[in-house]
């Protein structure tokens, strides 16, 4: 299966600390995406990293991709209470126009 | 104001009834998707469509049906054949770039409860 497996399942940190979430997958990919979901809401796209890229930044977000290890990480720096949400990785396969989502990491940032 | 909308926000269904969830987008996206999300889990793909009048089954299509008569609209019908339909349903859309999936834009979701 291409499904991303995320680690940890849940993470609780203090405001101002950094949060790191990991995603592993099993097959070759075209891209890997990260999404955020606030409780009871739709998902919001955060960042897309292509298979030929190793690192990407967007504001306080940093995503890395290691295709040799079939893994990606999402780092949120200087976390805020508003970052409290579920974070999902989604695998864009080499073939076909669809994504496969992981089970997500629940992040809680305490103020 | 561009975006993707879903209605209703909450839906209650009696066992044995079919219900239809609405999804509309004005982003001029070619592709549209329906996902199901169960508590504490990720999203599972039900159906997707890359062009009007064409759609493909996802991983959990049994008990569901869709139509794509207009580019802007992709309604999902949950039929009585779906054994456990209580879930949060999310619709998404995206541009189609070759055969590669780019960023998907999500609606706010419909929470379906079977009574």
Features:
heterodimer; A: 111 residues; mainly beta; five-stranded antiparallel beta sheet; 0% helix; B: 115 residues; seven-stranded mixed beta sheet; four-stranded antiparallel beta sheet; 52% strand
Notes on the protein architecture:
The complex is a heterodimer of chains A (111) and B (115). Chain A has strands spanning 5-7, 10-14, 19-24, 29-37, 43-50, 55-58, 61-66, 71-76, 85-93, 99-101, 105-110. Chain A has 111 residues and is an all-beta fold. In chain A, the strands form two sheets. In chain A, strands 2, 4, 5, 9, 10 and 11 form a six-stranded mixed beta sheet that branches. In chain A, a hairpin with a 2-residue loop joins β6 (55-58) and β7. The N and C termini of chain A lie far apart (38 Å). In chain B, β4 (31-37) and β5 (43-51) form a beta hairpin. Chain B has 115 residues and is mainly β. Chain B is globular and about 40 Å long. The mean pLDDT of chain B is 93. Classes of the chains: A mainly beta (111), B mainly beta (115). Chain A binds chain B through residues 3, 30-31, 33, 35, 40-45, 48, 88, 90, 92-93, 95-104, and chain B through 6, 31, 33, 35, 40-45, 48, 50, 58, 88, 90, 92, 96, 99-109, 111.
Overall radius of gyration of chain B:
13 Å
Poorly predicted regions of chain A: none
Q: Secondary-structure element order of chain A, as H and E? A: EEEEEEEEEEE
| Helical content band of chain B | under 10%
Biggest beta-sheet profile of chain B: 7 strands, mixed
Q: What is the largest interface, and how many residues per chain? A: A-B, 26 and 29 residues
Based on CA inertia axes, which overall geometry of chain B fits? globular
What is the SS-derived class of chain B?
Answer: mainly beta
End-to-end span of chain A in angstroms?
Answer: 38 Å
Instruction: Give helix % range of chain A.
Output: under 10%
């Amino acid at each position: 299966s291409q499904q991303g497996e995320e680690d940890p399942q849940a993470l609780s940190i203090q405001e101002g600390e950094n949060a790191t979430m990991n995603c592993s997958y099993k097959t070759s990919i075209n891209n890997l995406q990260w999404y955020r979901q606030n409780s009871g809401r739709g998902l919001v796209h955060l960042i897309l990293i292509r298979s030929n890229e190793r690192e990407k930044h967007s504001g306080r977000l940093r995503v890395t991709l290691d295709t040799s290890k079939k893994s990606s990480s999402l780092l949120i720096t200087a976390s805020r209470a508003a970052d409290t949400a579920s974070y999902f990785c989604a695998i864009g396969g080499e073939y076909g126009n669809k994504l496969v989502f992981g089970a997500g990491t629940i992040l809680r940032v305490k103020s | 104001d561009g975006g993707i909308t879903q209605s209703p926000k909450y839906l209650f269904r009696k066992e044995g009834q079919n219900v239809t969830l609405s999804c509309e987008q004005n982003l001029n996206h070619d592709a549209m998707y329906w996902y199901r999300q169960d508590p504490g889990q990720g999203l599972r793909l039900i159906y997707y469509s890359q062009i009007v009048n064409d759609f493909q089954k996802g991983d959990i299509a049994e008990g569901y049906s869709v139509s794509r008569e207009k580019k802007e609209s992709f309604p999902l019908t949950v039929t009585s054949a779906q054994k456990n339909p209580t879930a949060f349903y999310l619709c998404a859309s995206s541009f189609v770039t070759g055969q590669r999936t780019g960023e998907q834009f999500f609606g706010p979701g419909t929470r379906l409860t079977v009574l």
